[in-house]
Design goal:
The chain has about 250 residues and is an alpha/beta fold. The protein is built from five helices and 14 strands.
Length: about 250
């Protein structure tokens, strides 16, 4: 039982056929969107029950990226193999809502993380680093959420240098974002392309995307619970993400 002084905050975006999803340009293939297929609804196929088949890609809505999602982690863990101890850990929130509002292509650098550590202390072992940009306010409209123009998608992310540093020089569990993917919208132009995927998944660290309600979390002190489906061979899974916050502690 959760104590009365512990608040449970749901960080998960609702999952439906209108959930925004990554749209890769040709010739790359895209995942299918989420949908429900009715099997019965208190009728002849099932008079006392209602149930559906679900159809979805692994990386739709709020979801977890497992190491085997990326070529650098090809010999790593699938989503069913991630130790449950790695799915629960301290959450730290790095808030760059102002920077992202001024520049949708904002990239978090090592210096930004170091400045955060000066104020709040070192990143805890096995922490989930949550990159708050305020982007969840766009999550009901795919056009705004993906923010695509003729030059590409414009959403905030992490620089290649910072992604490598988080992956190789810290003992975090993973990196969580409010955007559609753990990389910036135009991360294909970075070196290497999609560095958050490249470095984090290649170093047995995980990603979670399309988070909501990060504004309700303190910078330090919350505990994150990440609950993907244990799909054997899965490269990721739609995921329920919950935060536990001690209401008696100062934010």
């Amino acid at each position: 039982m959760v104590r009365g002084d512990i608040e449970i905050i749901d960080l998960t975006a609702p999952l439906s056929s209108s959930t925004p999803a990554l749209r890769l340009p040709a010739p790359f293939a895209n995942l299918i969107d989420f949908s429900l297929d009715e099997v019965s609804a208190y009728n002849q196929p099932g008079p006392y029950w209602r149930h559906n088949n679900i159809h979805t890609g692994e990386h739709i809505g709020t979801h977890l990226d497992a190491p085997i999602h990326w070529v650098t982690g090809w010999d790593g863990l699938d989503v069913s193999e991630i130790p449950v101890q790695r799915l629960i850990g301290p959450a730290v929130v790095l808030d760059f809502t102002e920077e992202a509002a001024n520049d949708p292509d904002f990239l978090m650098e090592i210096s930004h993380v170091k400045a955060w550590e000066t104020r709040h202390g070192a990143l805890p072992d096995q922490a989930w680093v949550l990159f708050r940009t305020g982007w969840d306010k766009y999550s009901r409209t795919e056009e705004q959420f993906l923010n695509v123009d003729e030059s590409g998608s414009h959403t905030p992310g992490v620089s290649a240098e910072c992604a490598q540093w988080l992956a190789e020089e810290t003992n975090i569990t993973g990196f969580g974002v409010e955007t559609v993917g753990i990389d910036a919208g135009n991360a294909v132009a970075l070196d290497p392309p999609f560095p958050a995927h490249h470095f984090l998944l290649g170093n047995d660290k995980y990603g979670i995307t399309s988070l909501q309600n990060l504004d309700k979390l303190p910078a330090v002190g919350a505990v994150l619970i990440v609950c993907p489906l244990p799909i054997v061979g899965g490269t990721g899974s739609p995921t329920r993400v919950l935060a536990l916050v001690d209401k008696t502690a100062a934010a």
